Amino acid sequence: MIDLDPWGWAALGGAALTIGVSKTALPGGSILAIALFAAVLPARTSTAAMLLLLMVGDVFALIAYRRHAHWPTLLRLAPAVVAGLLVGFAFLAFAGDGVVRRAIGVILLLMIGVTLWRRRRASRTDAVAPASGGLVLAGAYGTLGGFTTMVANAGGPVMSMYFLATRTPVQVFLGTSAWFFAIINVIKVPFLAGIGLFTGPVLLTDAILAPLVVIGALAGLRLARRLNQRVFDRIVIALTVAGAVYLLL
Predict the structure, then answer these.
(1) Could you tell me what percent of the chain has a pLDDT over 70?
(2) 10 and 18 in contact (C-beta within 8 Å)?
(3) pTM, full prediction
(4) Can you tell me whether residue 198 is helix, strand or coil?
(5) Which sequence spans correspond to the domains of the chain?
């Protein structure tokens, strides 16, 4: 397995729990896991290791919300997302670890900015234009979402903002997101495997961490209606900013 000190394992364990909770209760929480993985592991390795754990969380998200997906939205996003995935794959294939590491830091800061801007807009009654769901909107968000999810598994805030911009109802938001990321994460596997990122140590490390994702997902299902999301989100944002700055430096 990957050779880490106790603090490294503690960070990855916390990240695995966060992945599970974010999939079933606190969308956006996975951005903290991205920062922790990228801070502990080499940048490209962190992308591959986290992907497999996200797929474990996807199973629970689908169990909880699979019936609420809006398939026309997924089909509208598909072409742009594929284009973004291909650009992100080319970036991963040719960029060195140092470049990818800094890119993840920049992406994290960008995603935090996107998330804060989205919430500010949502707090204003006239913030969001009528749901158009047009091809231009889908193209812009889909391309950026595909790129960020391939490079750093960080497409969540981008797609959340798209669903907000189209005034997607909450249950449809959760169901469509669950299917979107479940499908995209499966598509990403052969790309990352093709550039040799799924090594034996990565797979063994994920096997050790996967039960923590399951625990986090089950806890998220139980605690979804009890947690103070505003406080949690502030903690996630603060820690993620610290993680992103660390990666940049």
Answers:
(1) 91
(2) no
(3) 0.84
(4) coil
(5) 6-248
